[in-house]
Amino acid sequence: EVEKIFTPRPKTSQSNTFDVDDLLRDLDIPKVSIKVIDEQSGLWTKHQDCVRIIQAYGDQNECLHISCEYSPIGILVSYFPEDQSNKFLNLCITDIIIEKIIKEKFISRDINLTTSSDLTTTNQSFFAQDILKLENQLRSQPILIILEQRCIRLFGIIDLVKEVEKQIEDIQIKYASNMVQLNLKPNQIKYLMDIHYDELKALEINYKDTKIIEHLKNAKFLAPTYLQNTIEKQIINLATLCTPIHFEIQEESFRPIAQNECSNLINIGPISQDHVSSALTAAAIKIHQDDLVVICSTSMYLRDDILKKAGQSVKQEYIEAAKSSPKEPFETNSGNLKCRKLLFLPWEINRTNNDTFYQSIRNFVKKAVQYAIKTHHTSIAFPSIGCGQINVDKNIIANEMLVEAQKQLLTGNVLLQIIFVILPQQIDVFNAFQSKLDNLQTGNMAIKDAEISYRLSTLKLTIISSSVTKQEECKKALNNHIQKSIAVREYLQQTALKIWTQPTINIFYKFCFNRHVVLDMNIQIGYLKLFGSEQLVIEADNEYHKEQAQQSEQARLAVIARDVIWAYKINDNNWEKYSSELNIRIEDEYSSKRSTFSYTDIKSEEYIIDFTTKTETCKSNQQQRNIIRHAEFILPQYWEVQSENVQKFLVQSSSIEYKEMRALFDKTMVNQYIEIIRIERIQNKPWYIQYNSYKSFSSKKDTEKQLFHGCPQQSADLIINSFFNRSFAGINGTVYGQGAYFSSNAFYSHGFTHPNTPDTERCMFIANVLVGNSIQGNSTMKTPPTGYDSTTDGNHIFVTYRDDQAYAAYRIIYK
């Protein structure tokens, strides 16, 4: 507006300048007034840079016409007072409004620092550098930041000051130092201070605002929050990886000594008794060529890691097999892994309640063990399922897996080595398994007498000495003592080991275990190794030779009595066989040309057998009964020469034998199946002899029937290698008694065959069954009533209760 109306007056001769006052007065332009902002408004007025901040605010506000400058008495704000002009009111303002703007639009803040810092460029702390960096970023902003020894002062627009205040607080939190407690033992602290002092000092230099050495004596250190995890990890690493602390000796040389001569080791060391420790590693598990390794196919991390290590060919084999049977166990080659086969088995977890969950663990072990038995593997290695991502209580896993493994060994009546593989870092899992295993071995759990192998890899000693020279002397002395104290007995090609039974192995294992003698045994190749303290190894060695002699004698007796059955007469028509053990003893005495033989039964009754008169006399009441020796068994006409006690032979489809079995099957199964794949003849000589003996000694020979028995595919091989016993009763139900079920109706038995998948094979047995006297059965019967041999539905179902009452003669495989 001034420019529009301003016309310069011409200069006069009397003056070379304009009369500004006259001009302003003529134009009604007000004179400038000055407002002083002094210390009463705050100490910030002492800082010249505040002028820039207030002026910047005025410049950005079109309605605010002020000019600011600094003076010793305060900040001078020049303005046009409102009462000085009527024409240019939009240029004017009052001093009251200026004071209000200063109070409401601007704010000052003092931020106290928790630690002293000069906050200069020479200060190398991360906190100081971040604050200086922030100050540099704010220099062009309308805010004043003043850095002092213990304080940061801010002045500026309220919103901007609060924003910067928050940034400074965040930096303070990030670099705030707190005391951290370390999980270190006194000897570890001593090692750190003696051996790794320089490394600890370097940590203090590298990480500013930290104090380690000063507080380490109390197992603590001081550090900013963001550095605490990093520093703690490095200190712990120094403590655990300190080479003078741990002295490792291989188990073969050390474990027995650690158990039996701990006091001697302490005297040699010096060693702390608390630091004789053990660790289980997967590398310590010896996987032999015949071993089967179980992989939980539903454990993604374990499965993928195993497939990666096994190689691409195994991975491709797995993918193809998983497509066809994702819910069933299947084998693959082992690829780069040192085992014979990999068994992929899903763990079908059921967490409806605790009982169903525990059962799912047992089912996993059961399926794997039964598969290993069926496929004739000699050992099987399990992972500790559920201890990783699923995070199940390790004690539950150990208990369920070990108990079920033991149960399967007992019921399977086979020789199978079961190994549990624990990862090196799973010390707590190992301790849980070891504790449960100890309970099993000492009989403190429900099931006893099974052998489950585990091995330790290394044991560690902690040598209490800060002198490297002294530690080396200790190590040398310990090694010398161990070498002198250890005894080793190793035997190769011990063919007699192959006839050791599982209970015998258990007894010998416990003998060694209780004496801390390490046992390494492989019965398939006849290998045995004992090592430990010399005197204890001698004891174990003597026990081994004693057991070998007993086993050899038992094997000799078993050969003698293999095809011989002794029985005693119960009544005019029935005979009862002696127990297997007693049968062997009787035959041995008879073969040795003895005239008599005495024994005591389970009721402590003493009997005398007279081989000349073929009688047995009870010594207490002089009652006599006849005995008989049955040694001539005629094998079935179709049987072929066999090299093993149990073999299966394919029945040729063109033979009369095949046509007879098919005709029997087709009586009720015509049009009920797609095809018969094959018919197998089962030649289980021990079972047949037992069955034939029962048939010969009893009056039941005229009651022999050919009946059918349907069962799931996975149970078939167990039946072939054992009997139709009560463990299979649940397959067909218990409506007519708790025994083994048979039917004359093949179609009825078909309903119990249960294939693995709808398109896979089914199997059914044709069995010779001595039904004898049969009576209507019910679900409560565990044995038939006196005078009866089996139970029935009154039509086609028969239930037997003796192992030797039925014999599986044929197996029909069909779809």
From TrEMBL:
Protein's name in the database: Poly [ADP-ribose] polymerase
MF annotations from Gene Ontology: NAD+ poly-ADP-ribosyltransferase activity; transcription corepressor activity
The organism of origin for this protein: Adineta steineri
PROSITE patterns (alphabetical): PARP_CATALYTIC (PS51059), WWE (PS50918)
Subcellular location(s) of the protein: Nucleus
Pfam families: Macro, PARP, WWE
Gene Ontology biological process: negative regulation of gene expression
Domain (PARP catalytic) ranges: 635-815
GO CC term (a single one): cytoplasm
Predominant place of localization: nucleus
EC number: 2.4.2.-
Boundaries of every WWE domain copy: 552-629
Keywords per UniProt: Glycosyltransferase, NAD, Nucleus, Transferase
